[in-house]
TrEMBL record:
Domain Alpha-L-arabinofuranosidase C-terminal: 463-651
Domain of life: Bacteria
Native species: Parapedobacter composti
Designated name of the protein: non-reducing end alpha-L-arabinofuranosidase
Alphabetic keyword roster: Glycoprotein, Hydrolase, Signal
MF terms (GO), sorted A to Z: alpha-L-arabinofuranosidase activity
Length: 659
């Protein structure tokens, strides 16, 4: 670690950290000789849930909607082209013969008539198509009467062809096969669709009709949307929590998330209705399903790609208590517990074990090094505690090295929270997951929330936080600068207590501008672009400037938790040899501060200042102005041992000083 006594902390901030004297300053004392605790290297992370078209139609780059005809309405997303005689297009159901993917389409062009016949797929609110990019079409097929060729057309919203190719089946065998064809787009369009024309006479069975862009993350066939992953990687997240969120619970237990149905060959993964399909009357989304092309293997792989610890959350035998409140009887809980034990084996097991062997067959013989596992999501009451106890006993006996993350319910206070907080501490769980969806005022007022938490008790996971500009679940909530500034102020208290709060993540992660159910969200996308909100940049600044050890920053001997509208936290980074101070000014005027760093014998010549600021608290980033509120960085000169500085109005500033 660096020599703390030789480390200076000082910065000048007005406009872009320009020093000037003004009024009576607030003295901020940063005592770098008093190490208060270590910062978890994985502290600042990501919460992913398939909400707002976060997976299908979002992170998962598949462009075809309802590719295997498994939606409630088998042809949802598809339209018939031309004239087809009765029986020319049939959806067949194999039922128990292929329970995970029972439906397929039978095409008989001998019945179609002279006009020709085809199908058109609308994609997820259209297909985002890029000029010059290769697109890879694939399909599982079984020839019954050879003779059919597929003509492929990408067309824009006016019907103009912007890409075309041909697909002709090989051989005349009766078994199912998979075959691909590729072609390039000739124009860019945000809401294109794919037309498939059936040419020639014959009969063929089709399933898993798929179209992917070539520019997926790391170029993986059938992979993830690269621009969305890049925004995650840029945050340098310490962990990735998946797959949610409320979809873990399901409306009832039949709709719960079951990880075992999301691994193995894509065509064998059993589709499930997304509980956000029907959750909100004001945002009905009848075409929202989970195909699980983004399954548990891909989640683990994504975490590894972006350098994050995996944090899977599993159902604890309870459905959503706001919906059905269905619970599995205690004498039938073994299946759920075994799912947890098998998941650990899938992530960490030797390739000679059944689950380790499956992981290796999917392309990852090395273990994923799982260290944490969540049991339940936003569950509460004694029914949760008694089920959690069964999981805790089984996991601790077989995998004592795995830390268990437990739910503290839906709210950061109240009767439910108080009961769970007490019981979980008695159980000595490893990590308690707390959630905060509140008005910005709550975040400003709770910057000292963790100052008096028990240092010897369970660690805390700030698992879901987001300031709500209107109210919880309102469709009118905004990702404006006020919400982000409030979160920045609250997170100074989280960082100041990083010896207690070991993990933190904003939620939800993604929102599609044409397909969202919940707002606010950290990152917004359309079919071609993705951008970070002001809230994204707050979380990113904490994650990329986390330091290694906490040091106190005080005003008048007390933590700065709103004194004169200022909030602050400080860390030292022993690896980079830096002191990092974060300061929030919630006032509409500039504020003068003096940084007092006792024990420093000589100040450095320069500091790095990163400023996130807007004079307009209602300012938001948009597709057209993605960087309206974004960080500005500059190197500034420093003079004097206790100089005073101006903090811009409504600002969040990160000051970094090398020793």
């Amino acid at each position: 670690m660096m020599n703390i006594r030789k480390t200076a902390v000082l910065a000048s901030l007005i406009v872009l950290c320009v020093a000037m004297a003004a009024g009576q300053p607030t003295v901020l004392r940063v005592d770098i000789n008093q190490i208060k605790g270590k910062v978890n290297p994985a502290m600042w992370g990501l919460f992913f849930e398939d909400i707002n078209m976060g997976a299908d139609g979002g992170l998962y780059a598949e462009l075809i909607k309802n590719r295997s005809f498994e939606f409630f309405r088998p042809l949802m997303g598809w339209n018939v082209l031309g004239k087809a005689q009765e029986g020319a297009l049939l959806v067949l159901n194999r039922q128990e013969q292929q329970a995970a993917n029972p439906r397929f389409l039978r095409v008989n062009t001998e019945r179609s008539g002279a006009e020709g016949m085809g199908l058109s797929n609308e994609g997820f609110r259209g297909m985002g198509i890029k000029e010059g990019l290769r697109y890879d079409f694939s399909v599982m097929y079984r020839q019954r009467k050879p003779g059919i060729t597929l003509k492929l057309e990408l067309v824009d919203s006016a019907g103009r062809v912007i890409g075309q190719g041909r697909w002709q089946p090989r051989g005349d065998g009766q078994g199912w096969q998979k075959q691909s064809a590729s072609f390039q787009a000739t124009a860019t369009h945000p809401r294109a669709r794919l037309n498939i024309w059936f040419e020639g006479a014959g009969e063929i069975d089709l399933d898993m009709i798929s179209l992917f862009p070539a520019d997926t993350w790391k170029g993986r066939p059938g992979g993830l949307r690269a621009d969305m992953v890049q925004l995650l990687a840029d945050m340098q997240p310490g962990f990735l929590r998946f797959p949610g969120g409320c979809i873990v619970e399901g409306f009832d237990l039949s709709q719960r998330f079951q990880w075992k149905k999301t691994v193995g060959p894509i065509e064998d993964r059993q589709q499930l209705i997304n509980r956000w399909n029907f959750e909100f009357r004001h945002r009905p989304t009848p075409d929202y399903f989970q195909t699980f092309g983004l399954g548990f293997f891909e989640y683990f792989q994504l975490a590894e790609d972006i350098g994050a610890e995996p944090l899977p959350i599993l159902n604890c035998g309870m459905a959503c208590q706001f919906n059905s409140a269905e619970v599995v009887p205690m004498d039938r809980l073994d299946e759920y517990v075994q799912d947890a034990l098998d998941l650990i084996a899938f992530a960490n097991g030797d390739i000679s074990s059944p689950w380790g062997k499956l992981r290796a067959e999917m392309g990852h013989p090395e273990p994923f090094n799982l260290k944490m596992l969540g049991v339940g999501n936003e569950n509460w009451g004694p029914q949760y505690i008694e089920r959690l106890a069964v999981f805790q006993k089984a996991i601790n006996e077989q995998y004592p090295e795995i830390a268990i993350v437990a739910s503290s319910g839906t709210d950061p206070s109240g009767e439910r929270f108080d009961y769970l907080n007490s019981e979980l501490r008695k159980m000595q769980v490893d990590i308690i997951d707390e959630h905060y969806y509140r008005h910005p005022d709550w975040f400003f007022e709770n910057a000292s929330r963790y100052d008096d938490y028990d240092r010897n008790g369970p660690k805390i996971f700030a698992g879901e936080y987001a300031a709500q500009s209107v109210r919880i679940a309102s469709p009118d909530n905004k990702n404006n600068w006020l919400t982000a500034l409030a979160e920045a102020a609250f997170l100074t208290g989280v960082e100041r207590n990083a010896d207690v709060v070991t993990l933190a993540s904003y939620a939800p992660l993604f929102g599609h501008i044409d397909g969202w159910q919940w707002t606010p969200d950290l990152i917004w996308v359309d079919n071609l672009q993705a951008y970070g909100t002001p809230n994204y940049y707050v979380q990113k600044l904490y994650a990329t400037n986390k330091g290694t050890h906490i040091v106190p920053v005080t005003a008048g001997g007390k933590p700065l938790t709103g004194h004169q509208g200022l909030y602050a936290s400080a860390v030292v980074d022993g690896n980079a040899g830096e002191v990092i101070v974060k300061v929030v000014n919630r006032n509409g005027d500039s504020e003068t501060v003096v940084l007092d760093v006792p024990g420093i014998r000589r100040m450095p010549a320069t500091a790095t200042c990163i400023v996130l600021q807007s004079d307009n608290l209602d300012r938001m980033n948009t597709i057209d102005q993605p960087l309206a509120v974004s960080p500005k960085t500059e190197t500034v000169e420093i003079n004097g041992k206790r100089p005073q500085f101006e903090l811009k109005p409504y600002s969040f500033t990160v000051i970094k000083i090398k020793r």
